[in-house]
Amino acid sequence: MSYDPRTATGIPTEPVGSLPRPTTLQEAYAKYDKGEIGKDDLEKEQDAAVKDSVERFEATGSPIISDGEQRWSSFATYPIADTLAGTGLAPGLGPGGQFFAIFADGHGRQLPKLESGPFKYNQHAADTLKKSKPYASKPMKQAVIAPSMLALLYPLKDPVEGYSRDEFEAALIDECERDIREAFAAGAERVSVDFTEGRLATREDSRNPWTGAGLLPHFIELNNRVMERFSAEERTNIGIHTCPGGDRDSVHSADVPYNNLLGSMFDINAGYFLIQLASERDKDPVYETIGKHLRSDAEGVTQMAYIGTTVTQSPRVESAEEIAKQLVRAANFIDRQQLGSTDDCGFSPFSIDEKPNHGSPDYARDIAFQKITNRVEGTRRAAEELGVS
Question: Tens digit of pLDDT for each residue in 91-144?
Fold first, then answer.
């Protein structure tokens, strides 16, 4: 393994993925949807945002960085659409699919729906990583979308004519495996799988029928069908990310008891988990559940728990001392050799995000880099206190 997560900070630390897009880029996405600019113009703004993101990310001292997903419509739809409005939608998909989430402030994010097969991605994460990597001098990670999220493209009740759910899910597993493998081949040192739908799957929201369909066991099965295609050595660098969502500074499932998910999430045979925690009101029971269920042998891999130490939906910047205290406290419940740190969520998983609590996306970018800087320093301090090297 060329990248050692412990080298810089003792306790490993890693971002989730996304950063707020600059106002200029968000405006470019809107103009592109309206036909006011072409794709070349959009890509120029994306490239400028990536260059700025990488430079500022490296300045935080983070041992591993991302490109902030500046070239993506969202963490969930990057393989199937160019924009959130559906421009560049993949063949076989149409508008009007299921709401993947309804957020606490009342707004929702809707997926397209599968209308015909066969299912294929329009692009893969490696396609954008290849464009971003030349700007970076530090190791890069790449996030990819979980098969369980895109499984929601298939209508919940009505079968797609001539294309069964089993056929669709088999294609989906193939695409997710390819997404991960190509990301590693393009130079990603780590790949994490976004599993934000995991906690939401236990909510049973009458406004959003799929959440009451008991899908969590199937979601875990789908993710394990991907994991079983990788060796134990490969899975050491494949993670799972869970959080209660994040969009427009609002969340979709923070009210759902974490134990509804955590008791079974570690059954996924991934090497590490990025777990929202800083915004939890009562952290100790969550730490305890993680310590109880985190496995020392997940089909040949010792699992790691990277706990969230910064609240990505809040403009308040956590101090390094505060972050260190969170990690030291967590070590009372979680083996310190299996402990890491992260941010609660991506800072802005959707390309159009006004960040109302912050006042503007540009200010939210500034805050995100301050939080990351303090997370890195706080993690280093915690490692010193805990004697982890």
Answer: 999 999 999 999 999 999 999 999 999 999 999 999 999 999 999 999 999 999
Residue 324 near residue 385 (C-beta atoms within 8 A): yes
Instruction: Report the b/e string of 268-302 with b at 16+ CB within 10 A.
Output: bbbbbbbbbbbbbeebeebbbbbbebbeeebeebb
As a whole number, the mean pLDDT across the chain is 96
pTM of the predicted model as reported, rounded to 2 decimal places: 0.97
Q: What is the CATH number of the domain that holds 77?
A: 3.20.20.210
* pLDDT tens per residue across span 137-171: 999 999 999 999 999 999 998 899 999 999 999 99
Task: Report yes or no on 228 lying in a domain.
Answer: yes
- Residues with Cβ within 8 Å of 134's Cβ and at least 6 positions away in sequence, in order, are none
* Cα 162 from Cα 151, distance rounded (Å): 17
Residue 105 lies in a domain: yes
Domain presence at residue 9? no
Count of structural domains, the chain: 1
CA 48/CA 1 separation, integer angstroms:
31
Closest CA to 340 of 67, 141, 69: 141
Using alpha carbons only, give the angle 350, 23, 349 rounded to the nearest 5 degrees.
15
| Whole-angstrom distance, CA of residue 143 vs CA of residue 141 | 7
Nearest partner of 334 among 386, 258, 282, judged by Cα: 386
Q: What is the DSSP code string of 199-247?
A: HHTTS--TTSGGGGS--HHHHHHHHHHHHTTS-HHHHTTEEEEE-S--B
pLDDT of amino acid 1? 46
Going from the C-alpha of 356 to that of each of 106, 313, 348, 363, the distances in angstroms are 14, 10, 12, 10
pLDDT at 9 over 90: no
Whether 18 is covered by a domain: the verdict is no
pLDDT tens across 200-218, in order?
999 988 889 999 999 999 9
**Domain range for 156:** 23-386
Phi, psi of 197 (to 5 degrees): -75, -10
